[in-house]
Please model this.
Amino acid sequence: MNLNKLRDKAYQCAVAHGWYEENLSDEHFLCLAISELMEAVEADRSEKHANRDIFEYYMKQRRRDDEEFIYAFKHDIKDSVEDELADACIRLLDLAGLRGYDLDRLDYEGSDTEDYSEMNFTESMYRICVYVTDGFYNEYYDTLLNEIFAFCRDRNIDIFWYIKQKMKYNELRPYKHGDKSY
Model:
């Protein structure tokens, strides 16, 4: 996976949708990433998981247009644990694009991360948030992404597939998603 290409795509989509009309701090964007992690907690509490098999089956029946993609995404993926984790990653990728962080050095397969296998969902999300709030991102920004990737790897979530789907969905959304201020 080329993370710099993914970073650039996330950033370009955010620019095209009006999210950079004012200069905001890293803390602003990191808070939004934390909010996505908390939305993942809420989805987990509601036992809302994506229906990837149904989504893929629907999409493979015939060539689907953008409206049909949106329909399937909203019914089978949107607001699920996987969707919210993808959102958190996209927020971090977008910030990396804004600040020009090089993500090529990130070894998301072999790097040293927390062992999420012994933690429950909320403990895991808390641990990832601690990396953000401890200011760890100042020197090791890519660690935040890597921790989410490690959590997803531990839970057998193909996060890159979900990021790809969410990025396509975001590209099809209206300017500032219709009515959001940030």
